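User: Run a structure prediction on this.
Assistant: Running it now.
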Amino acid sequence: MKNKFTVPLYVVALLSFFIFTCQSLKANAQDAPRRIQITAKRFDFTPGDITLKKGVPVVIVLTSTDVAHGLKFKELHIDVKAKKGETNEVAFTPDQVGTFVGQCSVFCGMGHGSMKMTLHVTE
């Protein structure tokens, strides 16, 4: 006697492939570093304050809207620069806890010295 509910082998294979693919995509999304978008314009970084976790990889994505800018955190050995209208990025993993002040590393005018942002790294 034939079973009315026999599922064709190709349907089982497709379902298995679909489940495996979804699990792989989910795992990859969890492994991807957090991307932090920072916009630089004359004498301001937006956001001006970020909090990260020690040991958790991140990518800082710097976009300059008006002139060339840079963002440097000396203690963390980070220095990323972007030309006018361009974006550049740097990946890093914070390895120390604390509050760090970053500043523009490309002279951008008379207010350049006041162009700063704060990065908090917590446990």
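The two ends are 65 Å apart (CA to CA).
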